[in-house]
Amino acid sequence: MQLMNSLVLLAGLVSSGSGDIAWQIQGQLSQDAYHRLYQIRSSQLGSQLARIDGKTGATLWEIHGQPYVGWNADCVDESRIYVLVDDRVQAVDAEKGTVLWSEHVNQEFVQNAGYLSCFLHSDQIFLSYTLDQRAHNKLAALRKSDGSNLWTYVSSESINPIGADHEHVYLSGMQNAGSMLQALDQNSGREVWLRQDQGVYFHFDAWQRLLRQGPNDISRVDVRTGEDLWWVPISGSYVYSQGLSDAIYAQSDAMVTRLDPDTGSPQWNLNFTPGQPTYLSTQILTSGDVLLRESLDETNQTRFKVLQGNTGQVRWERTVNGLETFVTEAKDGHLFEQNSSALSLLDQEGQIVWNFQAPALTGGSVPKIGSVLSGEKQLFITLFESTGKYPPTSLAAVDWKTGAVQWVHETDEPLSLISLDQPALIILGTMLSGRSLALYQ
Predict the structure, then answer these.
(1) Which of 117, 143, 298, 415 would disulfide-bridge 148, Cβ 3.0–4.6 Å?
(2) What single DSSP character describes residue 206?
(3) Prediction pTM value
(4) Do 260 and 301 share a domain, yes or no?
(5) Given strand 191-197, what is the order of strands in its sheet?
(6) What per-residue confidence (pLDDT) applies to 89?
Protein backbone atom coordinates (compact mmCIF):
# COMPACT_ATOMS: atom_id res chain seq x y z
CA MET A 1 0.00 0.00 0.00
CA GLN A 2 1.37 3.43 -0.83
CA LEU A 3 0.31 7.05 -0.93
CA MET A 4 -0.10 8.41 -4.45
CA ASN A 5 0.52 12.10 -5.10
CA SER A 6 0.52 12.17 -8.88
CA LEU A 7 -2.73 13.67 -10.20
CA VAL A 8 -4.90 15.55 -12.06
CA LEU A 9 -5.94 19.10 -12.50
CA LEU A 10 -6.31 20.44 -8.98
CA ALA A 11 -8.87 22.95 -7.76
CA GLY A 12 -7.46 26.44 -7.71
CA LEU A 13 -5.39 26.11 -10.89
CA VAL A 14 -8.33 27.29 -12.99
CA SER A 15 -11.15 29.75 -12.55
CA SER A 16 -13.48 28.76 -9.70
CA GLY A 17 -16.65 30.08 -11.29
CA SER A 18 -19.84 28.05 -11.27
CA GLY A 19 -19.77 25.28 -13.88
CA ASP A 20 -15.97 25.41 -14.17
CA ILE A 21 -13.87 22.29 -13.66
CA ALA A 22 -12.56 22.00 -10.10
CA TRP A 23 -10.54 18.86 -10.80
CA GLN A 24 -10.42 15.89 -13.13
CA ILE A 25 -8.67 12.53 -13.12
CA GLN A 26 -8.41 9.59 -15.47
CA GLY A 27 -10.63 6.67 -14.47
CA GLN A 28 -14.16 6.03 -13.21
CA LEU A 29 -15.26 6.64 -9.63
CA SER A 30 -17.90 5.15 -7.34
CA GLN A 31 -19.31 6.24 -4.00
CA ASP A 32 -20.26 4.40 -0.81
CA ALA A 33 -23.07 5.13 1.66
CA TYR A 34 -20.81 7.49 3.62
CA HIS A 35 -20.17 9.65 0.53
CA ARG A 36 -16.58 8.42 0.18
CA LEU A 37 -15.19 8.17 -3.35
CA TYR A 38 -13.21 5.22 -4.71
CA GLN A 39 -11.50 4.30 -7.94
CA ILE A 40 -10.59 0.86 -9.28
CA ARG A 41 -7.91 0.61 -11.96
CA SER A 42 -6.41 -2.37 -13.75
CA SER A 43 -3.00 -2.74 -15.37
CA GLN A 44 -0.43 -5.40 -16.22
CA LEU A 45 0.68 -5.21 -12.59
CA GLY A 46 -2.79 -6.14 -11.30
CA SER A 47 -5.58 -4.00 -9.85
CA GLN A 48 -5.64 -1.02 -7.52
CA LEU A 49 -8.40 0.32 -5.30
CA ALA A 50 -7.85 3.96 -4.37
CA ARG A 51 -9.69 6.30 -2.00
CA ILE A 52 -10.16 9.68 -3.71
CA ASP A 53 -10.47 13.06 -1.97
CA GLY A 54 -13.79 14.53 -3.13
CA LYS A 55 -12.58 18.11 -2.62
CA THR A 56 -9.43 17.89 -4.75
CA GLY A 57 -9.45 14.60 -6.69
CA ALA A 58 -6.20 13.58 -4.99
CA THR A 59 -5.49 9.94 -4.13
CA LEU A 60 -5.54 9.51 -0.35
CA TRP A 61 -4.37 5.89 -0.29
CA GLU A 62 -4.21 2.87 -2.56
CA ILE A 63 -4.42 -0.92 -2.26
CA HIS A 64 -2.71 -3.18 -4.80
CA GLY A 65 -3.88 -6.70 -5.66
CA GLN A 66 -2.53 -9.37 -7.99
CA PRO A 67 -4.48 -10.24 -10.03
CA TYR A 68 -7.37 -8.17 -8.67
CA VAL A 69 -9.04 -6.27 -5.84
CA GLY A 70 -12.72 -7.04 -5.22
CA TRP A 71 -14.88 -4.35 -3.63
CA ASN A 72 -18.60 -3.92 -2.96
CA ALA A 73 -19.94 -0.48 -1.97
CA ASP A 74 -22.25 -2.22 0.54
CA CYS A 75 -19.26 -3.68 2.42
CA VAL A 76 -18.40 -0.56 4.39
CA ASP A 77 -19.14 0.97 7.77
CA GLU A 78 -18.39 4.32 9.34
CA SER A 79 -14.67 3.70 9.81
CA ARG A 80 -13.83 0.67 7.65
CA ILE A 81 -14.16 -0.83 4.22
CA TYR A 82 -13.89 -4.55 3.46
CA VAL A 83 -12.16 -5.79 0.33
CA LEU A 84 -11.11 -9.03 -1.36
CA VAL A 85 -7.42 -8.94 -2.28
CA ASP A 86 -6.38 -12.06 -4.18
CA ASP A 87 -7.48 -14.90 -1.86
CA ARG A 88 -7.70 -12.83 1.33
CA VAL A 89 -10.50 -10.74 2.83
CA GLN A 90 -9.20 -7.57 4.45
CA ALA A 91 -10.58 -4.82 6.67
CA VAL A 92 -9.10 -1.45 5.76
CA ASP A 93 -9.18 1.79 7.73
CA ALA A 94 -11.27 4.11 5.56
CA GLU A 95 -9.26 7.22 6.43
CA LYS A 96 -5.68 5.91 6.55
CA GLY A 97 -5.85 2.93 4.19
CA THR A 98 -4.05 0.70 6.70
CA VAL A 99 -4.97 -3.01 6.91
CA LEU A 100 -6.70 -3.77 10.24
CA TRP A 101 -6.99 -7.51 9.67
CA SER A 102 -6.41 -9.95 6.81
CA GLU A 103 -7.95 -13.42 6.61
CA HIS A 104 -6.91 -16.17 4.20
CA VAL A 105 -9.92 -17.95 2.69
CA ASN A 106 -8.81 -21.06 0.80
CA GLN A 107 -5.47 -22.30 -0.50
CA GLU A 108 -7.05 -23.30 -3.85
CA PHE A 109 -9.07 -20.15 -4.33
CA VAL A 110 -9.60 -19.55 -8.07
CA GLN A 111 -8.54 -16.15 -9.38
CA ASN A 112 -11.34 -13.71 -10.31
CA ALA A 113 -13.95 -16.10 -8.91
CA GLY A 114 -15.11 -14.43 -5.70
CA TYR A 115 -17.27 -11.54 -4.56
CA LEU A 116 -18.24 -10.04 -1.22
CA SER A 117 -21.76 -9.44 0.09
CA CYS A 118 -22.69 -7.41 3.17
CA PHE A 119 -26.09 -6.64 4.66
CA LEU A 120 -27.25 -3.86 6.96
CA HIS A 121 -28.41 -6.01 9.89
CA SER A 122 -25.61 -8.57 9.84
CA ASP A 123 -22.22 -8.42 11.59
CA GLN A 124 -20.69 -10.76 9.03
CA ILE A 125 -19.09 -10.55 5.60
CA PHE A 126 -20.10 -13.22 3.12
CA LEU A 127 -17.69 -14.39 0.44
CA SER A 128 -19.18 -16.30 -2.50
CA TYR A 129 -16.59 -18.26 -4.43
CA THR A 130 -15.76 -21.43 -6.34
CA LEU A 131 -12.76 -23.69 -6.63
CA ASP A 132 -13.40 -25.00 -10.13
CA GLN A 133 -14.20 -21.86 -12.22
CA ARG A 134 -17.88 -22.80 -12.45
CA ALA A 135 -20.81 -20.96 -10.86
CA HIS A 136 -20.35 -19.90 -7.23
CA ASN A 137 -21.27 -22.82 -4.99
CA LYS A 138 -19.37 -21.99 -1.80
CA LEU A 139 -20.09 -19.38 0.85
CA ALA A 140 -17.71 -18.33 3.62
CA ALA A 141 -18.77 -16.17 6.58
CA LEU A 142 -16.29 -13.89 8.29
CA ARG A 143 -16.81 -11.74 11.38
CA LYS A 144 -16.45 -8.02 10.64
CA SER A 145 -14.81 -7.18 13.95
CA ASP A 146 -11.74 -9.41 13.65
CA GLY A 147 -11.99 -11.37 10.37
CA SER A 148 -12.53 -14.75 12.01
CA ASN A 149 -13.60 -17.32 9.43
CA LEU A 150 -16.74 -18.68 11.13
CA TRP A 151 -17.85 -21.32 8.64
CA THR A 152 -17.94 -22.35 5.00
CA TYR A 153 -21.05 -23.74 3.31
CA VAL A 154 -20.75 -25.90 0.19
CA SER A 155 -23.68 -26.44 -2.17
CA SER A 156 -24.07 -28.81 -5.09
CA GLU A 157 -25.70 -25.96 -7.04
CA SER A 158 -25.01 -22.31 -7.72
CA ILE A 159 -26.01 -20.06 -4.79
CA ASN A 160 -26.39 -16.32 -4.31
CA PRO A 161 -26.81 -14.51 -0.96
CA ILE A 162 -29.81 -12.16 -1.25
CA GLY A 163 -30.12 -10.87 2.32
CA ALA A 164 -29.42 -11.36 6.00
CA ASP A 165 -30.84 -10.33 9.34
CA HIS A 166 -29.48 -10.76 12.88
CA GLU A 167 -29.98 -14.56 12.80
CA HIS A 168 -29.94 -15.94 9.25
CA VAL A 169 -28.41 -15.42 5.83
CA TYR A 170 -30.68 -16.25 2.89
CA LEU A 171 -29.49 -17.88 -0.32
CA SER A 172 -31.26 -18.23 -3.63
CA GLY A 173 -30.34 -20.50 -6.49
CA MET A 174 -31.47 -23.22 -8.85
CA GLN A 175 -32.10 -26.80 -7.79
CA ASN A 176 -33.62 -29.60 -9.88
CA ALA A 177 -34.50 -27.03 -12.59
CA GLY A 178 -36.51 -25.02 -10.05
CA SER A 179 -36.02 -21.98 -7.83
CA MET A 180 -34.48 -22.65 -4.44
CA LEU A 181 -34.42 -20.52 -1.28
CA GLN A 182 -32.70 -21.52 1.94
CA ALA A 183 -31.81 -19.98 5.27
CA LEU A 184 -28.53 -20.65 7.06
CA ASP A 185 -27.78 -19.95 10.71
CA GLN A 186 -25.27 -17.09 10.77
CA ASN A 187 -23.31 -18.47 13.73
CA SER A 188 -22.81 -22.03 12.45
CA GLY A 189 -23.70 -22.12 8.76
CA ARG A 190 -26.24 -24.85 9.52
CA GLU A 191 -29.26 -25.05 7.21
CA VAL A 192 -32.39 -23.85 9.04
CA TRP A 193 -34.90 -24.41 6.23
CA LEU A 194 -35.10 -24.99 2.49
CA ARG A 195 -37.95 -24.45 0.04
CA GLN A 196 -38.32 -25.04 -3.70
CA ASP A 197 -40.63 -23.32 -6.19
CA GLN A 198 -41.04 -23.17 -9.95
CA GLY A 199 -40.56 -19.95 -11.93
CA VAL A 200 -40.42 -17.55 -8.99
CA TYR A 201 -38.15 -14.76 -7.79
CA PHE A 202 -37.20 -14.03 -4.15
CA HIS A 203 -36.00 -10.71 -2.80
CA PHE A 204 -35.75 -8.61 0.38
CA ASP A 205 -37.26 -5.17 0.46
CA ALA A 206 -35.80 -2.22 2.39
CA TRP A 207 -37.79 -3.22 5.50
CA GLN A 208 -36.30 -6.73 5.71
CA ARG A 209 -39.43 -8.41 4.36
CA LEU A 210 -38.72 -11.52 2.31
CA LEU A 211 -41.01 -11.58 -0.72
CA ARG A 212 -41.69 -14.25 -3.32
CA GLN A 213 -42.91 -13.15 -6.75
CA GLY A 214 -44.47 -15.70 -9.06
CA PRO A 215 -45.81 -15.30 -12.61
CA ASN A 216 -49.34 -14.57 -11.29
CA ASP A 217 -49.00 -14.15 -7.55
CA ILE A 218 -47.02 -12.68 -4.68
CA SER A 219 -46.39 -13.92 -1.14
CA ARG A 220 -44.43 -12.97 1.93
CA VAL A 221 -42.14 -15.65 3.35
CA ASP A 222 -41.73 -16.24 7.08
CA VAL A 223 -37.98 -15.87 7.71
CA ARG A 224 -38.21 -18.28 10.68
CA THR A 225 -39.74 -21.23 8.81
CA GLY A 226 -39.63 -20.56 5.07
CA GLU A 227 -43.41 -20.93 4.85
CA ASP A 228 -45.72 -18.32 3.32
CA LEU A 229 -47.16 -15.84 5.82
CA TRP A 230 -49.72 -14.85 3.18
CA TRP A 231 -50.34 -15.40 -0.52
CA VAL A 232 -52.18 -13.11 -2.96
CA PRO A 233 -53.07 -13.88 -6.62
CA ILE A 234 -52.29 -11.10 -9.10
CA SER A 235 -54.07 -10.98 -12.45
CA GLY A 236 -52.12 -10.18 -15.57
CA SER A 237 -48.47 -10.70 -16.45
CA TYR A 238 -45.09 -9.21 -15.53
CA VAL A 239 -45.78 -9.09 -11.79
CA TYR A 240 -43.60 -6.61 -9.93
CA SER A 241 -43.62 -5.52 -6.28
CA GLN A 242 -42.36 -2.50 -4.38
CA GLY A 243 -42.27 -2.09 -0.63
CA LEU A 244 -42.91 0.95 1.53
CA SER A 245 -42.77 1.12 5.32
CA ASP A 246 -46.53 0.60 5.69
CA ALA A 247 -47.48 -1.15 2.44
CA ILE A 248 -46.43 -3.44 -0.38
CA TYR A 249 -47.53 -2.56 -3.90
CA ALA A 250 -47.99 -5.33 -6.45
CA GLN A 251 -48.25 -4.36 -10.11
CA SER A 252 -48.83 -6.13 -13.41
CA ASP A 253 -49.94 -5.17 -16.89
CA ALA A 254 -53.56 -5.61 -15.70
CA MET A 255 -53.71 -4.08 -12.22
CA VAL A 256 -52.04 -2.37 -9.28
CA THR A 257 -52.92 -3.19 -5.68
CA ARG A 258 -51.79 -1.94 -2.30
CA LEU A 259 -51.34 -4.73 0.28
CA ASP A 260 -51.02 -4.73 4.04
CA PRO A 261 -47.45 -6.00 4.61
CA ASP A 262 -48.39 -8.03 7.70
CA THR A 263 -51.52 -9.78 6.41
CA GLY A 264 -51.41 -9.40 2.62
CA SER A 265 -54.95 -7.98 2.71
CA PRO A 266 -55.63 -5.68 -0.26
CA GLN A 267 -56.20 -2.10 0.90
CA TRP A 268 -57.37 -1.11 -2.57
CA ASN A 269 -57.17 -2.37 -6.18
CA LEU A 270 -57.14 -0.67 -9.55
CA ASN A 271 -57.89 -2.91 -12.52
CA PHE A 272 -56.94 -1.74 -16.00
CA THR A 273 -59.94 -2.27 -18.26
CA PRO A 274 -58.96 -3.27 -21.81
CA GLY A 275 -59.65 -0.56 -24.38
CA GLN A 276 -59.54 3.20 -24.00
CA PRO A 277 -57.82 4.83 -22.29
CA THR A 278 -54.64 2.74 -22.46
CA TYR A 279 -52.53 2.65 -19.28
CA LEU A 280 -48.95 3.04 -20.46
CA SER A 281 -47.27 2.94 -17.05
CA THR A 282 -47.76 2.95 -13.30
CA GLN A 283 -45.19 4.22 -10.82
CA ILE A 284 -45.11 4.14 -7.02
CA LEU A 285 -43.87 7.53 -5.83
CA THR A 286 -41.64 8.23 -2.85
CA SER A 287 -44.66 9.53 -0.92
CA GLY A 288 -46.57 6.26 -1.46
CA ASP A 289 -48.90 7.85 -3.99
CA VAL A 290 -49.34 6.15 -7.37
CA LEU A 291 -48.66 7.89 -10.69
CA LEU A 292 -50.62 6.66 -13.73
CA ARG A 293 -49.94 7.59 -17.34
CA GLU A 294 -52.77 7.08 -19.82
CA SER A 295 -52.72 7.43 -23.60
CA LEU A 296 -55.79 9.11 -25.13
CA ASP A 297 -55.12 8.05 -28.70
CA GLU A 298 -58.34 9.39 -30.18
CA THR A 299 -57.57 12.97 -29.08
CA ASN A 300 -53.75 12.67 -29.31
CA GLN A 301 -53.39 13.48 -25.60
CA THR A 302 -51.77 12.05 -22.49
CA ARG A 303 -53.45 12.04 -19.08
CA PHE A 304 -51.65 11.78 -15.77
CA LYS A 305 -53.31 10.80 -12.51
CA VAL A 306 -51.87 10.68 -9.02
CA LEU A 307 -53.74 8.40 -6.62
CA GLN A 308 -53.55 8.82 -2.86
CA GLY A 309 -51.51 5.97 -1.45
CA ASN A 310 -53.71 5.17 1.54
CA THR A 311 -57.07 5.31 -0.29
CA GLY A 312 -56.48 4.90 -4.03
CA GLN A 313 -58.59 8.00 -4.65
CA VAL A 314 -57.51 10.55 -7.27
CA ARG A 315 -55.39 13.29 -5.73
CA TRP A 316 -55.02 15.21 -9.00
CA GLU A 317 -55.09 14.63 -12.72
CA ARG A 318 -53.68 16.51 -15.66
CA THR A 319 -54.13 16.16 -19.44
CA VAL A 320 -51.59 17.44 -21.96
CA ASN A 321 -51.50 17.51 -25.76
CA GLY A 322 -49.40 14.91 -27.54
CA LEU A 323 -48.28 11.40 -26.64
CA GLU A 324 -44.60 12.05 -25.90
CA THR A 325 -44.88 13.78 -22.52
CA PHE A 326 -43.89 12.10 -19.25
CA VAL A 327 -44.04 12.90 -15.55
CA THR A 328 -40.82 11.92 -13.77
CA GLU A 329 -39.86 11.92 -10.11
CA ALA A 330 -36.52 13.10 -8.76
CA LYS A 331 -34.92 11.25 -5.84
CA ASP A 332 -36.17 13.89 -3.40
CA GLY A 333 -39.79 13.37 -4.49
CA HIS A 334 -40.28 16.42 -6.73
CA LEU A 335 -42.34 15.77 -9.87
CA PHE A 336 -41.53 17.15 -13.31
CA GLU A 337 -43.53 17.16 -16.52
CA GLN A 338 -41.11 16.54 -19.36
CA ASN A 339 -40.89 16.19 -23.13
CA SER A 340 -37.89 16.29 -25.44
CA SER A 341 -37.34 20.06 -25.25
CA ALA A 342 -39.17 21.37 -22.17
CA LEU A 343 -39.46 20.57 -18.50
CA SER A 344 -41.85 21.91 -15.84
CA LEU A 345 -41.77 21.64 -12.07
CA LEU A 346 -45.13 20.51 -10.65
CA ASP A 347 -46.47 21.35 -7.21
CA GLN A 348 -48.37 18.98 -4.90
CA GLU A 349 -51.61 19.64 -6.78
CA GLY A 350 -50.10 18.92 -10.19
CA GLN A 351 -49.92 22.59 -11.19
CA ILE A 352 -46.95 24.04 -13.07
CA VAL A 353 -44.57 26.16 -10.94
CA TRP A 354 -42.15 27.13 -13.73
CA ASN A 355 -41.10 26.07 -17.25
CA PHE A 356 -37.62 25.30 -18.52
CA GLN A 357 -36.69 25.26 -22.21
CA ALA A 358 -33.53 23.52 -23.37
CA PRO A 359 -31.05 26.30 -24.28
CA ALA A 360 -29.13 26.38 -27.55
CA LEU A 361 -25.56 25.13 -27.18
CA THR A 362 -22.38 26.44 -28.73
CA GLY A 363 -22.82 26.11 -32.47
CA GLY A 364 -26.56 26.76 -32.29
CA SER A 365 -27.89 23.21 -31.83
CA VAL A 366 -30.83 22.73 -29.46
CA PRO A 367 -30.38 19.56 -27.35
CA LYS A 368 -32.95 17.20 -25.90
CA ILE A 369 -33.68 17.01 -22.19
CA GLY A 370 -32.43 13.91 -20.40
CA SER A 371 -32.43 13.21 -16.66
CA VAL A 372 -33.11 15.50 -13.70
CA LEU A 373 -30.70 15.54 -10.75
CA SER A 374 -31.84 17.15 -7.50
CA GLY A 375 -29.23 19.16 -5.63
CA GLU A 376 -29.80 20.97 -2.36
CA LYS A 377 -29.29 24.45 -3.80
CA GLN A 378 -29.66 23.84 -7.53
CA LEU A 379 -31.34 21.50 -9.94
CA PHE A 380 -29.19 19.85 -12.62
CA ILE A 381 -30.58 18.79 -15.99
CA THR A 382 -28.69 16.72 -18.54
CA LEU A 383 -28.97 17.82 -22.18
CA PHE A 384 -27.94 15.55 -25.04
CA GLU A 385 -27.55 15.76 -28.79
CA SER A 386 -30.03 13.68 -30.76
CA THR A 387 -27.51 12.16 -33.17
CA GLY A 388 -24.92 9.42 -32.83
CA LYS A 389 -24.64 6.20 -30.86
CA TYR A 390 -23.07 8.03 -27.89
CA PRO A 391 -24.57 11.52 -28.09
CA PRO A 392 -22.64 14.36 -26.41
CA THR A 393 -24.15 15.32 -23.05
CA SER A 394 -24.13 18.73 -21.42
CA LEU A 395 -25.19 19.73 -17.92
CA ALA A 396 -27.38 22.72 -17.06
CA ALA A 397 -27.64 24.11 -13.53
CA VAL A 398 -31.09 25.58 -12.87
CA ASP A 399 -32.45 27.79 -10.11
CA TRP A 400 -34.93 25.85 -7.97
CA LYS A 401 -37.29 28.82 -7.49
CA THR A 402 -37.54 30.11 -11.06
CA GLY A 403 -36.23 27.46 -13.47
CA ALA A 404 -33.72 29.99 -14.82
CA VAL A 405 -30.45 28.60 -16.20
CA GLN A 406 -27.44 29.43 -14.01
CA TRP A 407 -24.77 27.85 -16.18
CA VAL A 408 -24.22 25.11 -18.79
CA HIS A 409 -21.20 22.81 -18.95
CA GLU A 410 -20.80 21.36 -22.46
CA THR A 411 -18.95 18.14 -23.34
CA ASP A 412 -18.49 16.00 -26.44
CA GLU A 413 -19.37 12.65 -24.80
CA PRO A 414 -22.01 11.11 -22.50
CA LEU A 415 -21.95 12.03 -18.79
CA SER A 416 -23.10 10.14 -15.69
CA LEU A 417 -23.65 11.43 -12.16
CA ILE A 418 -21.32 10.10 -9.46
CA SER A 419 -22.00 12.39 -6.50
CA LEU A 420 -23.87 15.48 -5.39
CA ASP A 421 -22.74 15.00 -1.79
CA GLN A 422 -19.41 16.82 -1.89
CA PRO A 423 -19.55 20.44 -0.64
CA ALA A 424 -20.12 22.89 -3.52
CA LEU A 425 -19.21 20.28 -6.16
CA ILE A 426 -21.00 17.96 -8.55
CA ILE A 427 -18.90 14.95 -9.59
CA LEU A 428 -19.45 13.32 -12.97
CA GLY A 429 -18.07 10.47 -15.04
CA THR A 430 -17.49 10.37 -18.79
CA MET A 431 -18.23 7.34 -20.95
CA LEU A 432 -15.74 7.52 -23.80
CA SER A 433 -12.58 9.11 -22.36
CA GLY A 434 -13.00 7.40 -18.99
CA ARG A 435 -12.42 10.61 -17.03
CA SER A 436 -14.07 11.69 -13.80
CA LEU A 437 -14.45 15.37 -13.08
CA ALA A 438 -15.85 17.78 -10.51
CA LEU A 439 -17.62 21.03 -11.35
CA TYR A 440 -18.10 23.99 -9.05
CA GLN A 441 -21.81 24.38 -8.35
Answers:
(1) 143
(2) T
(3) 0.88
(4) no
(5) 159-164, 168-175, 178-185, 191-197
(6) 95
